[in-house]
Amino acid sequence: MRTRREFVRDLGCGLGATAFLSAFDRFSSLEAAMAPATDYKALVCVFLYGGNDGNNTVIPYDDYASYQAVRGTVLNLPKASILQVSAPSQGAAFGLHPALTNFQTLYGQGKLAVVANVGTLSAPVTRSQYLAGSERPDSLFSHSDQQAQWQSSVVRSQDRLSQTGWGGRTADALASLNGTTFPMVVSTSGIPIFTRGVTSYPLVPGASLKGFSDGSAVATARLAAFRKLLTLESGETLVGAASAVTSAAIDNTAILNAALAKGATLTTTFPGTGIGRQFQQVAGILSIRAELKINRQVFFVSLGGFDTHTDEINTQQNLFTQLNAAVQAFYDATVELGIADSVTTFTLSDFGRTFQPASGGGSDHAWGSHHFVMGGSVKGGDFYGTFPSLALQGPDDSSNEGRWIPTTSVDQYAATLAQWFGLDGGSLATVFPNIGRFASSHLGFLP
Fold it and tell me: How many C-beta neighbours within 10 Å does residue 351 have?
């Protein structure tokens, strides 16, 4: 037998509802601080789970010899195969992974930018400071910890915001821009920490209530009984809050499904891969933004499999082929919807990987890596940040294997995205607690 508390908890999680009953004071002054927006903007986070190898994602073209000397024949991508792009800010040419043909096209069109050597940091750090034990993020090189730090922008466990993500906290701060109670955050990939705010919670449109939603008389009666159950007094604050959140999740799922049923079908064709279907789902929700009466949205999609300790060449080729097709279809859908300038898509991942190959044709866990930002408002066709010196035990290596010390922090990367989205300078420190420790809070790849 399951208790009512367990039933409500599990059902709420299945619908994508999550509540945080502490730390409201941190955000109470931010809510309702602004009038509803008159424009529309969306952020789409693409998380590459496992730790993508940035060294084979963005490759030096002019200085290819330095790359080849270390990667050797184990992880070397032939120079003739990489997709050449110019990087005016770096005064050099680079190459993208051979599978990223659409990324190269979007880059050439000025719709995609590369942000170099980004990683988790609490403050800028040099090799000597790192080796002395200064300013190291907690549990560096751990998958779960680094995923949480990338998604939360909190690298020290004692900060209470570590249980919330910067996507969710941005939604907290800008909730009043929507002028509606429909969730600002939508995830097609569970309920990651990125989507959790102090007062905001994500909606997971793929979740359903088995036995509650098939339209039959029995299901309708069962749902009505469950709704009544949620209204019963329990005498416990936590259970009452969970019941309220679950009720809202049910209502919001119904609103979303009704709007989708009335929405027009997109002509853009999406690939039938998992990441393709996720992007198609996001595009469908973008198409009904007016019906939902929503002005700001944050989306989370993901692609796993990037923990390439072995067989990296083949694995990355397969994963990037999927990502390349899905991203192009999504961008085409935003053009079809007339909102390409209003949607910005960006990548995150656990960490980069060692420049020095590992046995088995792979690479080990590392630190800084390169990421992509795409959209009509992106100042593309260039690199932002500083590309690392590809020297083992050099100034950018935290070890002797090519674990690049980030020269751009997650906070700076995320803050640039959040400011384009509508977050003002006064709210930055609330959402990104360490942003004041870096020289700039805006990297320039968005207006």
Answer: 29
